[in-house]
Design goal:
The structure holds two protein chains of two kinds. Chain A has no helices and eleven strands. Chain A is an all-beta fold. In chain B, the strands form two sheets. In chain B, strands 2, 4, 5, 6, 9, 10 and 11 form a seven-stranded mixed sheet that branches. In chain B, strands 1-3-8-7 form a four-stranded antiparallel sheet, with no helix packed on it.
Amino acid sequence: KQEVTQIPAALSVPEGENLVLNCSFTDSAIYNLQWFRQDPGKGLTSLLLIQSSQREQTSGRLNASLDKSSGRSTLYIAASQPGDSATYLCAESSGGYNKLIFGAGTRLAVHP
Amino acid sequence: DTAVSQTPKYLVTQMGNDKSIKCEQNLGHDTMYWYKQDSKKFLKIMFSYNNKELIINETVPNRFSPKSPDKAHLNLHINSLELGDSAVYFCASSPGTGKGSPLHFGNGTRLTVT
């Protein structure tokens, strides 16, 4: 059974800190690993997508890595800002037809 | 605005009723999805259509019936609503079904069954 686990479930940090969100998955035969951001009352915004052949992807202050052998991905956020406060979800795609399996998310609060 | 739009945003109804949620995307995508986010915040796929053809049908009660009149629309009809159907339902679309096709999500429909 495919499972995605995210640790920690919640995180509160002061502005300016660098932080790491963790995601682990059970299926090593993944096609890709995606990170999303969800704001309250909103849909999901795609942040980064790492193909199975890649080790990492970067976008601005965000860097996501993928280690298929250990079944782990991390999302690194540099110099966190209050606007980064949201729930961060990771999802793996290993089946056909772009079917995503989501973790429960990490709820991040960055306070001034 | 180019987007995935869902209506209504909120839906409150009584057990036993039948309701529909509509979804439209103007991104020119071929593939659309319905996901359900339960009270524990887990997002699970329900259905996916590619060019109006059903390609993913997870273990969902047959009270849920998706309909895709064209590739820009994917509606979700729910019969005989139950308390356990209360959740946030998200529509999404992607350019194709291939691995690596990024998903674009709507803002969700919060369904409350009383």
